[in-house]
Amino acid sequence: MGVEGDGDGASLVDLVREADVGSGVCPQRLVMEHVTSRWGTLVLIALRERSYRFGELRREIGKVSEKMLTQTLQTLERDGFVHRDAKPVIPPRVDYSLTDLGREAAEQVRSVAQWVERRMTAIEQARGEYDSGKS
Q1: In angstroms, rounded to a whole number, what is the distance separating the alpha carbons of residues 108 and 104?
Q2: What is the pTM of this model?
Q3: Residue 2 to residues 9, 59, 81, 119: CA-CA distances in angstroms?
Q4: Do residues 126 and 108 lie in contact, with contact meaning Cβ atoms separated by under 8 Å?
């Protein structure tokens, strides 16, 4: 699959646009939604540091419901980003970690998060200029 400007054929934008017109389902868009969702981003960044048990991960991320964290972990596991290791002990122990693919995705997400942090002053300035022009 090509990415804009990499010389590998159709760009991601072209593929998404074609899917919107055709079948209505674009697997690239779905994966992008999973990786860049509010909780998907935070799970990937947290698991980049180390593996977590469910409760630990929930506390690390903060303000996420059990249901939402469970859905996010299942989605990321299905996409091949998260590994779920259920150990047959009593009480049950389940650890979550990143796969190689997940580590790669987490690095990309982390880069964007770091860029946002570095550029937040400029972003806030742009927001202020936009908002003052709207009043």
Answers
A1: 7
A2: 0.80
A3: 5, 38, 21, 28
A4: no
Q: Grade residue 5 by pLDDT with cuts at 50, 70 and 90.
A: very low
b/e sequence 54-90, b meaning 16+ C-beta within 10 Å = beebbebbeebeeeebeebbebbeebebbbeeeeeee
CA gap 101, 116 in Å, rounded: 23
The DSSP element (H or E) to which 89 belongs, if any, is: none
Rounded to whole angstroms, the Cα distance separating 44 from 124 reads 26
CA 129 to the chain's CA centroid: 30
- Which residue type sits at 34? H
Distance CA(103)–CA(106), nearest Å, equals 5
Amino acid identity, residue 42?
L
